[in-house]
Amino acid sequence: MDLNAICKSLRSGSEKLALQNANTKNAALSAVALALDKNRASIIKANQTDIENGRANGMSESLIDRLTLNDKRIDGIIESMNIVIGGGDPIGEEVAGWKTPNGMNIRQVRVPLGVVAIIYESRPNVTVDAFCLAYKSGNAILLRGSSSAYNSNCEIVRIIKEALSDAELKGCGVPETIELVEVDSGNHNHEDVNQILNAVGLIDVVLPRGGKKLIQNVVSNARVPVIETGSGVCHLYIHDDADLQMACRIAENAKIQRPSVCNAIECIVVNSAIAKEFLPKLEETFAGRVKLHADKAAMPFLKNALPATEEDFGNEYLDYECCIKTVNSIDEAITYINSHNTKHSESIITESRAAARLFQSRIDAACVYVNASTRFTDGGEFGFGAELGISTQKLHARGPMGIKALTTTKYLIDGEGQIR
Question: CB-side exposure of 382: number of CA atoms within 13 Å?
Answer without folding.
Answer: 17
